């Protein structure tokens, strides 16, 4: 089971590690999250999510039209295959809430994903390929630097 957007400790057995190739040797995503008391500011988390995976999608940005706040943020993403989605980010995770930028379809009952990596992996073969290529490039650089 992968780690959720919460403060619960990861489970040791079968734990999935989520990181971008550029972040392999840096702090984890959750260490970069800004917390306000016990509540994470979803607007700031959304910006971090975008920065983590922008290299592997065609376009991704926090929605300026939909109201984001401490408990929810909206992210627009266009995957490499050309399909656009509006994503909702909450403490429960990320899910697709619309198939057009800046539009929430209240009738959609889509699955929550614990990480942006899991969500994009389920939507986009192009994301998987870009992520894998970036990982290989990062490993090659480490090898060339003798690390």
From TrEMBL:
Domain GSKIP: 43-142
GO molecular function: kinase regulator activity; protein kinase A binding
Top-level taxonomic group: Eukaryota
Gene3D superfamilies, per database record: Hypothetical protein (hspc210)
Listed GO biological process terms: regulation of canonical Wnt signaling pathway
GO cellular component: cytoplasm
SUPFAM superfamilies (UniProt xref): Hypothetical protein c14orf129, hspc210
Family stated for the protein in its record: Belongs to the GSKIP family.
Protein name per UniProt: GSKIP domain-containing protein
Organism this protein belongs to: Phoxinus phoxinus (Eurasian minnow)
């Amino acid at each position: 089971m992968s780690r959720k957007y919460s403060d619960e400790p990861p489970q040791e057995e079968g734990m999935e590690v989520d990181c971008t190739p550029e972040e392999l040797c840096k702090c984890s995503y959750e260490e970069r999250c800004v917390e306000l008391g016990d509540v994470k500011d979803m607007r700031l988390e959304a910006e971090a999510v975008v920065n983590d995976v922008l290299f592997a999608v065609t376009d991704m940005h926090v929605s300026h039209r939909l109201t984001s706040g401490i408990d929810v943020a909206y992210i627009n993403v266009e995957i490499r295959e050309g399909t656009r989605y509006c994503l909702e980010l909450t403490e429960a995770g990320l899910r697709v809430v619309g198939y057009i930028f800046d539009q929430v379809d209240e009738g959609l009952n889509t699955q929550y994903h614990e990480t942006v990596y899991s969500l994009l992996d389920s939507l986009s073969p192009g994301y998987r390929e870009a992520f894998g290529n970036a990982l290989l490039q990062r490993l090659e650089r480490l090898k060339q630097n003798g690390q």
